[in-house]
Write a structure and sequence with these properties.
The complex is a heterodimer of chains A (about 80) and B (about 270). Chain A has a two-stranded antiparallel sheet. Helix content of chain A is about 45%, strand content about 15%. The N and C termini of chain A lie far apart (about 60 Å). In chain B, a hairpin with a 6-residue loop joins strand 3 and strand 4. With about 270 residues, chain B is of the alpha/beta class. Chain B has an eight-stranded mixed sheet with strand order 3-4-2-5-1-6-7-8, sandwiched between helices. The relative contact order of chain B is 0.17. The chains are: A alpha+beta (about 80), B alpha/beta (about 270). At the A-B interface, helix 2 of A face helix 7 and helix 10 of B. Chain B: Interacts with MinC and FtsZ. Chain B: One of its GO terms (biological process) is division septum assembly. Chain B: Pfam families: AAA_31 (PF13614).
């Protein structure tokens, strides 16, 4: 910090940027972690089944499990190509 | 029954071996019979930090494979007589550490030791998983820096899902945060994550804060666990951490910088 910055009270706040970035990425990764192990394989098999009928790319099937207190919901999103 | 404590972090270079050496020395100094095991098969380092590198004859893998007895492989520390070191092998494949082999050694050590400290290798591969598998408690060594904090969070996830306690549905591994290489003056300038920031993100209890200190390098140069540098801030911070690990209440120290006077700020640029 230079002489003038001292009086202006100007401060480098990279730590708050770090904190914000970490909070986002850590929350995201914790969400992923709670997903069941079989999910990638389930997604792959679903892709294969759908491909028997419609040509879709890998990223067009999204599978997620949402856990509530009493039950879990398997959420399946399939985007079909435009006609 | 011994208490099994893993010192882990995910990221390399954050101070796992330094911490393992100091925590185990601190426990032993208080009269607890303690063994510290180097799990970093292939890259043995704990022996250097503990100043016993020239006394290694047999190692952890020799014991697992039945080529040596535990008594032949254990090295008794020359400074603290209740402290023993079980060195890692330098030459073997990491897969030489099998779950059954590690369990056999830990069970045998459990009969005579009060504390078993497991110094984990970096990463989340086989060696790191073996080091944490049998743990009752985990010291997660973290630097106030983005990649270290993120990796610590991943290790916490692994402790909660892949440890023996998790697999057996027992009480979860008791987690402790040890923040190392902490620089209070950079924190005050807003250039470094604060203790509170890291605690908030990782959400585990704080065991201690080790200030960044030149003493740490000086000590490792000589093969002296930092905790034996009793007059240094880092040594005292480790001493406090050991006391807290044993259930004592100690106020956290070394978390604020020594305030500089007005003139030294003017001339040294704050």
């Amino acid at each position: 910090m230079s002489f003038l910055d001292y009086f202006k009270g100007k401060k480098n706040k990279s730590a708050s940027v770090a904190k914000e970035r970490l909070q986002i990425i850590v929350a995201h990764e914790r969400g992923q972690r709670e997903q069941p192990d079989y999910l990638p394989q389930l997604q792959q098999e679903l892709l294969e089944v759908i491909r028997k009928y419609v040509q879709i790319s890998d990223d067009m099937v999204q599978v997620e499990v949402d856990r509530n207190e009493s039950c879990s919901v398997l959420e399946l999103n399939v985007t079909l190509p435009e006609r | 029954m011994a208490r099994i404590i893993v010192v882990t972090s995910g990221k390399g270079g954050v101070g796992k071996t330094t911490t393992s050496a100091s925590i185990s020395t601190g426990l032993a100094k208080r009269g607890h019979k303690t063994v510290v095991i180097d799990f970093d098969v292939g890259l043995r380092n704990l022996d250097l930090i503990m100043n016993c590198e020239r006394r290694v004859v047999y190692d952890f893998v020799n014991v697992i494979q039945g080529e040596a007895s535990l008594n032949q492989a254990l090295i008794r520390d020359k400074r603290v007589d209740t402290l023993y070191i079980l060195p890692a092998s330098q030459t073997r494949e990491k897969e030489a550490l099998t779950k059954d082999g590690v369990e056999k050694v830990i069970n045998e050590l459990s009969e005579t030791f009060d504390y078993i400290v497991c110094d984990s290798p970096a990463g989340i591969e086989h060696g790191a998983l073996m080091a944490l598998y049998y743990a009752d408690e985990a010291i997660v060594v973290t630097n106030p820096e983005v990649s270290s904090v993120r990796d610590s969070d991943r290790i916490l996830g692994i402790l909660q899902s892949k440890s023996r306690r998790a697999e057996m549905g027992q009480d979860q591994v008791k987690e402790h945060l040890l923040l190392t290489r902490y620089n209070p003056s950079r924190v005050e300038k807003g250039e470094m994550l604060s203790v509170a920031d890291v605690e908030e993100i990782l959400a585990i209890p704080l065991l201690g804060v080790i200030p960044e200190s030149q003493i740490v390098l000086n000590a490792s140069n000589q093969g002296l666990p930092v905790i034996l540098e009793e007059d240094s801030d880092a040594g005292q911070a480790y001493e406090d951490a050991v006391a807290r690990l044993l259930g004592e209440e100690r106020e956290h120290r070394f978390m604020t910088s020594q305030k500089k006077g007005f003139f030294s700020r003017m001339f040294k640029g704050g």
